[in-house]
């Protein structure tokens, strides 16, 4: 990396403007972070990635689609692209998936193994009479049966819906009911605890397949191993069309009740292109996506994208732990690593020495998604590993990465990066009530640099969700004036980099100023004692709302009045009195979703004594 002092630029402008008038960045009050340029030696740059503008100008989704095989007569099936086309080519015996058990031992599946196992699963579904478009759910840890189940479901033309295995009985039955699950793939223990008690309320659930029945399935369930053994795998794949549904994903529930987003087989085109441009996947890579396939990241980028690119995907069956993660990165010579801010902040908390104690020389590219990535984490990555973290932005609804810090372009710490080739991003102006401004059926866009607007995407990318399950009206309301409205607020700087401001629901209005929680949180994290922060607005008679921060301290620091004042002083100096928190509370933990996102709505509800809302995705113990 070279950090050029002349290139010092303000980090995201402080979220300070009167809500009804545009304002340019006040660089004087903004935190400053160096732009990070990259040494080509650590990058395996494809020739077309070095010139962002040229790549975007020449890119078409049809061209990306043409790089895939397709099925005869214009058909498309994700499983064929991810597995079977490799299994019938030179990558047949290459290692597709490497599972690491809790004790560190491994088991691997080659592309040929995966093709065979998924075809067997498809045959099982067929034998059970499960048809095209019917829903197959999983409630499983990250085990091989989950992966072969997903791919076999695609091959059968059915729709897969993964559930995170740590969900309690209520969220599990709620989703199975909503999705009218016909088949559930699970373990004996998970079935006993979470499904058997509510089985009578799930009339659509015809078959429960246990992956560990060991010859004696529970009453009302079947032994998957036995069914697989008896099945006759066929090389036939259902002749799915690009627009046929393939996946049902429930969102993380950060802002409210989770929504079911329906995705189609054509999404694989976006998984392919974004795997190339945003994650730099090459055959021969050992790639590790730490997200669980129960969430969209773990499916799009933990299963589909790596397999489509023919790489070896590492799957850790255990829970997160700093030393274990470093060991895995080093021992498995991981080259590309895709993880999340909550994990990165945890590693940062564990310290630079621990990071440097491991040989990470194989690691070439680190990316992050799911929440705003604080600039200090990006810069710390550079210090600890010699590699910056590439933030990227997308949602369950977008199905794939939309905005990213790309492989060969400079990184602006705190920025989400620039739109991927083929993705048109706009910022839609909002009125004083926060509603998008639409005139004569056309959205009014923010064009000045560094002014907030609602992040919007021009419909038409292949992995766009095609519906909210059974909620047509809700789906329709996501689109206005020619755009898909994401519900997130952002700014674009003069060079086209996007800066996350906050979720529409989390943004704080104080004395007519709009304040994005992320910028305040990032500023608080600059204090050496602060490990993590969550910021909300609380009612104030004069200002409407004022900022309250909950901070989690790094090891070795204890709450004290002196420390509180010192954090406040830093925030006031950096952000100014209007934006800095009025109040700081020390917290032992922050409420998070099971996918690792800070639940500011819950902090707010608890603070104000309001109903806590849907907590089905709240992480246990928070
Ligand atoms: P729900 O829609 O149910 O409230 P959710 O929005 O958290 O839940 P996901 O689809 O898993 O569910 O998350 C997408 C959201 O996560 C984005 O809309 C954005 O708010 C946030 N996000 C994802 N990546 C980033 C990022 N790089 N920077 C900032 N925010 C991000
Ligand atoms: Mg959302």
From TrEMBL:
One GO BP annotation is: acetyl-CoA biosynthetic process
| SUPFAM superfamilies on file | Acetyl-CoA synthetase-like (SSF56801)
Does Acetylation appear among the keywords? yes
KW ATP-binding (keyword) present: yes
Q: Where is the AMP-dependent synthetase/ligase domain?
A: 85-458
Under the heading InterPro entries, the entry gives:
AMP-bd_C, AMP-bd_C_sf, AMP-binding_CS, AMP-dep_synth/lig_dom, ANL_N_sf
Keywords in alphabetical order: Acetylation, ATP-binding, Ligase, Nucleotide-binding
Q: What is its EC number?
A: 6.2.1.1
Q: Species name for this entry?
A: Blastococcus aggregatus
Which EC class is the enzyme in? ligase
Q: What is this protein called?
A: acetate--CoA ligase
Alphabetically, the GO molecular function entries are: acetate-CoA ligase activity; ATP binding
| Domain AMP-binding enzyme C-terminal, first and last residues per copy | 519-597
What NCBIfam families does the database record attribute to this sequence?
A: PRK04319.1
List the signal peptide residues. none
């Amino acid at each position: 990396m070279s950090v050029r002092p002349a290139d010092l630029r303000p980090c995201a402008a402080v979220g300070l403007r009167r809500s009804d008038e545009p304002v340019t960045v006040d660089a004087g009050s903004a935190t400053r972070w160096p732009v990070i340029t990259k040494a080509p030696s650590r990058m395996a740059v494809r020739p077309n990635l070095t010139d962002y503008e040229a790549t975007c100008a020449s890119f078409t989704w049809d061209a990306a689609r043409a790089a895939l095989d397709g099925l005869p007569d214009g058909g498309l099936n994700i499983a064929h692209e991810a597995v079977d086309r490799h299994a019938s080519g030179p990558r047949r015996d290459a290692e597709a998936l490497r599972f690491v058990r809790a004790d560190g031992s491994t088991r691997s599946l080659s592309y040929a193994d995966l093709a065979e196992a998924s075809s067997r699963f498809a045959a099982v579904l067929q034998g059970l009479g499960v048809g095209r478009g019917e829903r197959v759910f999983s409630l499983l840890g990250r085990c091989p049966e989950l992966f072969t189940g997903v791919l076999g479901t695609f091959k059968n033309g059915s729709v897969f819906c993964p559930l995170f295995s740590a969900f309690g009985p209520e969220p599990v039955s709620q989703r199975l009911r909503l999705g009218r699950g016909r088949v559930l793939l699970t373990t004996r223990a998970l079935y006993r605890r979470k499904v058997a008690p509510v089985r009578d309320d799930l009339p659509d659930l015809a078959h429960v397949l246990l992956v560990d029945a060991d010859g004696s399935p529970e009453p009302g369930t079947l032994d998957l191993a036995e069914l697989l053994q008896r099945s006759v795998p066929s090389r036939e794949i259902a002749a799915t069309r690009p627009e046929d549904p393939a996946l049902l994903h429930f969102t993380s529930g950060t802002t409210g009740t989770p929504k079911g987003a329906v995705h189609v087989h054509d999404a694989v085109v976006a998984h392919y292109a974004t795997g190339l441009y945003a994650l730099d996947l090459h055959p021969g890579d050992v790639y590790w996506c730490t997200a669980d396939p129960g969430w969209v990241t773990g499916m799009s980028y933990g299963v589909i994208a790596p397999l489509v690119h023919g790489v070896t995907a590492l799957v850790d069956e255990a829970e997160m732990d700093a030393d274990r993660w470093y060991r895995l990165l080093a021992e498995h010579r991981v080259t590309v690593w895709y993880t999340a801010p909550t994990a990165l902040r945890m590693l940062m908390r564990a310290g630079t020495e621990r990071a440097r104690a491991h040989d990470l020389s194989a690691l070439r590219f680190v990316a992050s998604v799911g929440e705003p990535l604080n600039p200090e984490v990006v810069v710390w990555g550079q210090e600890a590993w010699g590699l910056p973290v590439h933030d990227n932005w997308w949602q369950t609804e977008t199905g794939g990465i939309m905005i990213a810090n790309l492989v060969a372009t400079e990184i602006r710490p705190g920025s989400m990066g620039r739109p991927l080739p083929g993705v048109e991003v706009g910022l839609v102006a909002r009125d004083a009530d926060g509603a998008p401004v639409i005139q004569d059926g056309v959205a009014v866009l923010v064009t000045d640099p560094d002014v907030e607007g609602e992040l919007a995407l021009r419909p038409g990318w292949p992995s766009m969700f095609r519906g909210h399950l059974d909620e047509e009206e809700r789906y329709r309301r996501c689109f206005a004036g020619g755009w898909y409205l994401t519900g997130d607020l952002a700014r674009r700087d003069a060079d086209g980099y996007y800066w996350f401001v906050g979720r529409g629901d989390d943004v704080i209005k104080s004395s007519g100023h709009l304040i994005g929680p992320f910028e305040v949180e990032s500023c608080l994290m600059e204090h050496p004692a602060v490990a993590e922060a969550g910021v909300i607005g609380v009612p104030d008679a004069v200002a409407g709302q004022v900022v309250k921060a909950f901070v989690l301290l790094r090891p070795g620091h204890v709450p004290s009045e002196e420390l509180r004042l010192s954090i406040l002083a830093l925030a006031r100096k950096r952000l100014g009195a209007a934006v800095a928190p009025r109040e700081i509370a020390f917290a032992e933990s922050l409420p998070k979703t099971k996918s690792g996102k800070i639940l500011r709505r819950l902090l707010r509800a608890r603070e104000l004594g309001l109903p806590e809302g849907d907590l089905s995705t709240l992480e246990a113990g928070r």
